[in-house]
Automatic annotation (TrEMBL):
One Pfam family from the record: MvaI_BcnI
Iron recorded as keyword: no
InterPro entries recorded: MvaI_BcnI, MvaI_BcnI_cat
GO molecular function, one term: endonuclease activity
Keywords, alphabetical: Endonuclease, Hydrolase, Nuclease
Name of the protein in its database record: MvaI/BcnI restriction endonuclease family protein
Amino acid sequence: MRAGGNLADMGIPLWQDDITEESVRLIFMDYGVNSIQIKFLQRNHNSKNQVYLAGDLSELATLPLGDIRPSSGTSAKKTAGAPIYHAPIPWTWIGPFGSSPAPSAQLVFYPQYPEVRLSGFLRGSRDAPNVLMSPTSRGQEAGRVLIFGVNTTADKIFGLVVSGFSPAAQAFSRYKDDSGRITTIPVREEISTDSRLNLIRELARIHAMGWLEACELPASGIPRPCRGPRCGGHTLEAHLGIPLNGAPAPDFGEWEVKQHAVTSFDRPGVGTITLFTPEPDLGAYALNGVDWFVRTHGIMGNTQIRYDFTGRHMVTGAPHPKTGLELILNGYSSRYKAMTADGYVGLVDSHGDLVSGWSFAKLLQHWQGKHAFAAYVPSQSQSDSVPRLYRYGNRVILAEGTRFGLFLEAMARGAIVYDPGIKSELNGNGRWTPKARSQFRIATKMLSCLYDEFNEVDVLRI
């Protein structure tokens, strides 16, 4: 008998008491979900205490989020002034006869712990599991399981809670471990759940193929030629079966896959990797736009028809020798590993005025897309070939467990740099045409500071 009594003692029979694993899988397939995430609930996981999901938003990179909003902590549980970040999510509860949205559902991120909790998930939904999640009913029952997954086409999260007495809960318990982390499995049981091993095998296959013509995989599933600077990544993704969609979901199973150019496969740790390219949301840049920025702070070329704003800016306490702007990290303490709700990364001029800036909320929105599992694959290209050819090395980096706090610490130490490639050119009609490219980058040899686990793996030796 489970702790908490038997089913007869509960007094409120539910459809979630009888549901099987097979039924759960079929239901999620019907809602267009390809993989499900399983969270084994503790007694205090209910509507009163919120539900702990993860230690960082990057562990929930598959979930579509609304705009992340900062606020200061006010409850007795939190230290005074500690920031909290709220992000609405398109959560829909599955019921016995259909589904209905939970309009108040949101993720709440407490970076000082750190932890991410699910909040507001019962209000306003006809199919919400009120009995199983209410502390005054069965919301403290042992063995309950929260199951959810994303329909990436509709950008909706579908979820349900099964009773600890259900055959489904007992069947899914084979995935339970002591870490408390969410477990991700494919909806179709015949697909292997070992995404790490599957990825290594696929990368070994692609390495063995040698030089590959540049290509990309559109939504139609039919590969087509690729042209442009991003073809190294697109070609690798195409051969992994990853379509061009720009969705935040992981590329391969739980893994984000990124290629990086190297001159030698014997030295895969050399080079620089672009982490993300967010546009500023603070300062004069955000108010006046990219063309104003580059023509005000950029450098005009000898041809007099182009401005460029480039250069590796890092947090050093001094202005950049070429641009005259200083990169600052405001609202983060490296000593206490603490951040403020209104913190930001910014470029300031000699008067201390904020020329361009990225709020922590904006950066956190982008960091959420940095998946907790990442594979970095070295690549080489033959740029003089038509079409361009790429090949991929056998020594890859597999990294696990990242947090936004690690990003801020890497910024404070100068490991992450702001390395823009912004330009504006005078076209034939006499108009300036800007191109924005705000890049945050890190040397490959410094990548390990962003992860809890960091290993180089030879895909030919697994």
